[in-house]
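Predict the 3D structure for this chain.
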Amino acid sequence: MSLANPTTDPPRPPAPQAETKVAPPGGHGFAKLGRHISNVYRLTIKELRSIVADPVMLALVAFSFTIAIYAAATGASTEATNLSVGIVDEDHSDLSRRIADGLTPPTFKPAVEITAPEIDPAMNAQRFLFVIEIPQRFQEDILAGRQPSVQIDVDATASAQAFNGMTYIQNVILKYVAAFVAGREGGSGEPIKVVTHAKFNPNFKSSWFTGVMQIISNLTMITVMLTGAALIREREQGTVEHLLVMPVVPMEIMLAKIMANGLVVLGATGLSLLFVVQWWLQVPIAGSVLLFLAGSCIYVFTVASLGIALGTVAATMAQFGLLSIPVLLVMMLLSGSTTPLESMPVWLQYLMKTISPTPHFVIFAQDVLYRGADAAIVWPELLATAVIGGVYFVFALRRFRSVIFSG
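Done. Predicted structure below.
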């Protein structure tokens, strides 16, 4: 063993030291964000594969956005068509015959003349929805300036058709009486002529309204069912345990489920709007389909968050089905898609617009698709939907963390 002589040996060079590299500001944050995006992408692919591997769910989505839309638009009509009418003509005058001949298809079936004793048995047997009773000396009283009464018996079991049909019958009677009086007096008819122009739906076809609104209802239902069922299925099959040991966070899992199921629903919505509504039902779309789909992205995010929240509350698929039914019914029935919001109590309108995104999305869809509104008009509804969606997402994330990752 030799010792170095500090007086004679040359000085040794200093030992090399490891170079310390300073990461650029924000570099670690970008790498972390990249990992999150990569995890969400891979989890989204996993969710899409699970959806494709479920033929029953795919069949449900296809049926909901094709046949169900067409059946609801054409079968659940509230228009007054082919209404059966009986007429008790005790006057047998020219005017009474004109009124009977004025009840023409397709609104009415040809009027059937009956006697007064047949009214109650015929309506009890549902032979007629309406019975018109024209009294004796009806034409004579009209020409004398008196005001005779015409009785209309209505079967109001179907209240919408009964109201619409009664209005049509009243208009027919008033029209022919006015024309008869003007012709006998040698006048030129009514002093003014009222011309009505109906915008957005000039023929008042209910299928134009029902078809688009049914898309919104089915979009809501399918999105909630898909996202909630995806979570419940993993809990029942035990595959959620695999996620617990993976280097992923709850937000990544939730975003993947929302994105995967949202892509499926948005794709089905766009195809249904183009092929079922525009091509099959012949409903004209006044506004931008792209703007509607962009707003649908915000709405799908909101209702998908609700679906995950319901999936964390329910433990089994049966419980999830029973829990989602009343929630979906309230959201759709009180959204303005079936009955106008203005017909509801004021407090209920404010409540639904505060806790539910569906009224805002219905207003947005009607403005864009029916009236051709642009983003400058509908942005408040999109903002309200996004705010409600943020609340839903935060609540679902807290439930997801506590139930799945802490359970």
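The CA atoms of residues 95 and 356 lie 55 Å apart.
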